Amino acid sequence: MFDAVVCQFGVMFFPDKPKAFSEMRRVLRPGGVLIFNVWDRIEENEFAHNVAAALAALFPNDPPRFMARTPHGYHDLATITRDLEAGGFRSSPHISTVAARSRATSARIPAIAYCQGTPLRGEIEARDKSRLSEATDAAEEAIVRQFGPGPVDGKIQAHIITIER
Questions:
Q1: Where is the Methyltransferase type domain (predicted)?
Q2: Strand order of the sheet with strand 152-164?
Q3: What whole-number distance in Å separates Cα of residue 52 and Cα of residue 45?
């Protein structure tokens, strides 16, 4: 039995969240704490939102939706609370929403990070492997349009959830 279970930006990837919460609860001692965080909706995360919009314009018939669907797709607090209850947690979760800033020396850095350094890359390549560079350029241009050339500074927001067994 553990005093705490901690999961940083992982819960949104679990295919069966109530089952995962049940397993986390199972290994917690009575009074133990589960702490996890998830990204808020994509509209509250400026770089991710800009990248998603740029890719939707580039692939209008079949936009890559990985960012909105997965990292930013598990943000609804009522759903999270229901999933925790379905996983056997009986106390009310404590939820904090935290906004911060994400900074980079240029728009190119987050464009590459999102388009080439996440599973979003696979969705881009599934549409047209030859357009990965074009997609990265479009993402960079979208970020520059909002934040200007040079260093960029965008809002990011997440929820931190704590619940006791």
A1: 2-36
A2: 2-8, 28-39, 152-164, 94-104
A3: 11
- Going from the C-alpha of 153 to that of each of 44, 45, 124, the distances in angstroms are 14, 11, 25
Q: Which residue has the tokens 């997440």?
A: 158
Beta strand pairing call for 94-104 and 152-164: antiparallel
At 127-143, the pLDDT tens digits run: 999 999 999 999 999 99
- Asked if 12 contacts 159 with a C-beta cutoff of 8 angstroms, the reply is no
**How many C-beta neighbours within 10 Å does residue 161 have?**
20
- Domains plus CATH for the chain? 2-164 (3.40.50.150)
pTM of the model: 0.93
* pLDDT tens track for 5-62: 999 999 999 999 999 999 999 999 999 999 999 999 999 999 999 999 999 999 999 9
